[in-house]
Amino acid sequence: MNDTTALLAWGADCLIANGHPTQSAPENVVSTPWSTxxxxxxSNGDFYLKQTPPSISTEPQIIKLLAxxxxxxxxxxxxxxxxxxCFLMRDAGQVLRATLKTKxxxxxxxxxxxxxxxxxxxxxxDVNALIRLGxxxxxxxxxxxxxxxxxxxxxxxxxxxxxxxxxxNLHDLxxxxxxxxxxxxxxxxxxxxxxxxxxxxxxxLDHNTQKLTFIDWGESSITHPFFSLYNCLEQAIKHHxxxxxxxxxxxxxxxxxxxWLESSTKKQLLDAFNLSxxxxxxxxxLGCYRLMVSVDLQALNKLYADKPNRLATALRKYIACCT
Length: 323
Fold this sequence. Notes:
14% strand, five-stranded antiparallel β-sheet, alpha+beta
């Protein structure tokens, strides 16, 4: 990615051109192999400049389409720079996780889930508009082929610690993947846009208006809506002490299904959701691989030194749930 100097100059010039002169030196608030985020403070509020690697740099175009065509609750993009692979957006509030860490509010998290699911549903009849922007097509009829492509990356998988025995297991499971995808498709739940890491940390809350805004669309794909919804439940377990099967988990799971109750029974939706929990590991592995080949892999592995082999872990979890 480009150095910070060029980002600072473009960001400051862009804000001035739009009538938002900065009041102080910008702050670097995020620096990862996949994202640099700078905060500019102005008399008209805070603005954030985000830069990503070229292969996942269509985020501002995705956000604009979601806002303009589908009226989605996404950040307001001020401007973008294709050469620097970055864009400026207006502040939309505090990360929801910070609020929930202070006092966990299951109703608030349910509202976030339901609003995100409603956003997904709003795009389901025109996913081709998103695909034309470069959003990957990971729909269920494509997933077996994508799985084939992934497990053919032998050198890459072995470098991530997959063994020969595990690789054979993955090849043996290929018919199972196909059968599961066809079964999940039979529930006729329309496929739509999804954020692989949808959770309360990629949701912003404006404490003045109580408006929720969904962020981090650069790695989105067109796929089954339950994959990213289930990810949110997994993050609630990890960060808020929710336990699979308890009353809070059941309430959150119900929130994941609410948007589809007019066209399916709750039992059908639960059956589909439970099936998606297994295929979610393949979805997660595809997301890991996409990120790994988009960034400086050495820097990524260093950042996740305490959680190594994330791609291999996702594939091992799929093996475990199928055997």
